[in-house]
Design brief:
single chain, nine-stranded mixed beta sheet, alpha/beta, 9 strands, globular
Length: about 210
């Protein structure tokens, strides 16, 4: 999947993954990460998610990575924040109090650019990538976060019935990516019965990786 694919979706506002409310999984299970009040949370492929506002209101710091710059401009408007914008390597960094968003190709991110993170909240990154890119992505994540504890949301369904993204990811695959370094615990599952998944059997899961 090339960058143009995602830029086109943002350009046409075909962003069905964007929620208008804070993800209820985040609200219900964030405490399972057992973090201090001022922890720094990494959200890969963050888009303009308002989950960031919830985390900031809880007193945490947020660092994100996103390919599309327009999404980040909209994010800062929604947060009523005026960003300081600077170039760091191949990234454009949007920064304000307690928030850093790197705009660019996440696969060019390294631990020196990212800085220390205390936890990862993957609410739409792993499921956005096809299989071969998921292997590359999870390897990167382990390398640049050392690895930090993680809340991971995924979908599971018959991939032949829906092209994706979001892609179907099984528990077995999650274990293949993360099982050597994390204890993996399923926190909750439920069946989705609306939107593009209304006509097929789709389950959404949230996992705790520590």
């Amino acid at each position: 999947m090339e960058a143009d694919f995602w830029h086109k979706l943002w350009e046409t506002n075909d962003t069905g993954w964007h929620l208008e409310d804070t993800n209820p999984f985040l609200i219900e299970f964030f405490s399972k990460l057992e973090l201090s009040d001022d922890s720094r949370i990494f959200i890969p492929l963050c888009g303009k998610t308002i989950d960031i506002k919830w985390l900031l209101n809880k007193g945490h710091k947020v660092v994100g990575a996103e390919l599309n710059e327009d999404a980040i401009k909209e994010l800062f408007i929604s947060l009523s924040l005026q960003p300081n914008i600077q170039k760091i390597g191949n990234f454009t960094l949007y920064r304000s109090k307690n928030i850093d968003i790197f705009v660019g190709d996440i696969f060019e991110l390294n631990k020196d650019i990212l800085g220390k993170v205390d936890a990862i909240y993957d609410r739409g990154a792993l499921v956005a990538l096809p299989r071969e890119m998921r292997i590359q992505y999870t390897s990167l994540l382990l390398n640049i976060t050392e690895p930090a504890p993680q809340l991971l949301i995924n979908f599971e369904y018959d991939q032949s019935l829906y092209e994706g993204p979001p892609f179907s990811i099984t528990k077995t695959e999650i274990e293949e990516h993360y099982g050597e370094l994390y204890d993996i615990k399923l926190l909750k599952s439920f069946k989705i019965q609306d939107g593009p998944f209304a006509k097929i059997s789709v389950y959404e899961h949230i996992w705790l990786l520590k």
